[in-house]
Amino acid sequence: MTNKHIYKAKGRVKEAAGALTGDRHLKNEGRADQAKSSVKNAVNTLTGRKRNTKQKQRNTEQKQKQR
């Protein structure tokens, strides 16, 4: 399990525990952990896209040099 999945699961557990006990602070903390998971996922996606774009650019430059 990656960190983003751990934060999401941890957030769900905290949110559920907060809802059961009526603890708003715990419930909100769980929501925050889930949001952290979403942000990490978005950053990883963008980083991966940037890496792929750079690799494609390098490949194109190498093909042009070979011609």
SSE layout and pairings?
Blueprint: H1 3-21, H2 24-66
What class, by secondary structure content? mainly alpha
How much strand? under 5%
Described by strand count, sense and barrel closure, the largest sheet is: none
Number of helices, where a helix is a run of at least 4 consecutive DSSP H or I residues = 2
Separation of the first and last Cα atoms? 45 Å
**If you average the pLDDT, what whole number results?**
86
Taken together, the total number of domains comes to: 1
**Rg (CA only):** 20 Å
Describe, in short, the structure shown:
With 67 residues, this protein is mainly alpha-helical. It has two helices and no strands.
Describe this entry's structure for a reader:
This protein is mainly α and 67 residues long. The chain has one domain (3-66). Helix content is 93%, strand content 0%. The protein is built from two helices and no strands. The protein has helices at 3-21, 24-66. The radius of gyration is 20 Å and the shape is rod-shaped.
